[in-house]
Write a structure and sequence with these properties.
With about 160 residues, this protein is an alpha/beta fold. Helix content is about 35%, strand content about 20%. The protein contains six helices and eight strands; from the N terminus they run βαβααβααβαββββ. The strands form two sheets. A five-stranded parallel β-sheet has the order 3-2-1-4-5. α4 (about 55-70) packs across α5. It is elongated, with a radius of gyration of 17 Å. The mean pLDDT is about 85. The structure holds zinc ion (ZN). Zinc ion binds near residues 133, 143, 146 and 148. The site of zinc ion has 8 residues, from loops.
Length: about 160
Amino acid sequence: MKIYIADTGVFINRKGRDRQLVTVPSVIDETKAKYTSMEMLIALETGAKIEQPDPVFREKIVDKAEGTGDIEELSGTDIDVLAKALEYGKNAVLMTDDYAVQNVASMLGIKIEPISQSRIKDKIIWGKKCTGCMKRFDNGEECPICGSPLKKIRKRKI
Ligand SMILES: [Zn+2]
């Protein structure tokens, strides 16, 4: 049976009512903070499950996202839903429109279904480039050579 892991956008866009949705507590908090809880209540009444993310899988997501450079773009909620999708493995389809989440998911072989936007076509490795001397680095906030701020760039596509 397919399990659809839902990020906040699923509930906002009223998607997945006919599916077995699983989400994480932080998604519920985000939805409540931004919108009335009415949609959320309806989703729960239709059988969406709320499960805590496993810290072991969370750790794996953080490791992977640090490797791809997506970590700065990921919120705690993003990491939670990715961890939940990884835990369900091949039975999981992660419903999200977030590009950084999609990027990390595709690196880990997690199936993705966009909610409203189209899915990403390429996997992207992010790097950093100095705004002063233009040297490239894997990470960091400040250039170790000239001290200028580094900006995020696409290093390569896979
Ligand atoms: Zn520099």
